[in-house]
Amino acid sequence: MSNPVLVVVPDLMMRQKIVGALQALGYPAQGVAKVARLDAALADGVPSAILVEIDGVDIDAPALTASLAGDDRRGEAPVVGFCSHMRTELMDQVRAAGADRVIARGELIRRLEAVMAEIIGPPAP
To answer: How far apart are the C-alpha atoms of 54 and 44, rounded to whole Å?
Structure first.
């Protein structure tokens, strides 16, 4: 698997934590600080997955999710939204907008290896 997992997270520390954990597990990963930069990242090639912090600053999560769901540049890459477990209404909206999976932030961090294996399979050797 050579296509990166795009990690769309405004907060530098959280973004680096997820990117670093993915890389340590063997998944190529690319951090994207702003939704505005996601277009350029998609232009670079088809990702293997797109992880989006849906309660991030300046993100209209349902609109972004609907846009990604209809964007041919993502290929078959699943769109995974994550946020605080308290944001159940937002999670429901993003799920309805077309996210392949919506998960609480803590669960994503705790189960990152299992979640990635479930959505795109194990990393290439």
So the answer is: 22
Residue reference for tokens 């990702």:
47
Whole-structure pTM value: 0.94
b (16+ CB within 10 A) / e for 74-106: beebbbbbbbeeebeebbebbeebebbbbbbbe
- Burial (CB < 10 A; 0-12, 13-18, 19+), residue 125, is exposed
Are the C-beta atoms of residues 41 and 12 closer than 8 Å to each other?
A: no
Q: What is the rounded distance in angstroms from the CA atom of residue 64 to the CA atom of residue 21?
A: 25
For 12-64, what is each residue's pLDDT tens digit? 999 999 999 999 999 999 999 988 899 999 999 899 999 999 998 778 999 99
Residue with tokens 């769109």: 79
What is the biggest distance separating any 2 CA atoms in the chain, rounded to whole angstroms? 39
Is residue 80 within 8 Å of 103, Cβ to Cβ?
Answer: yes
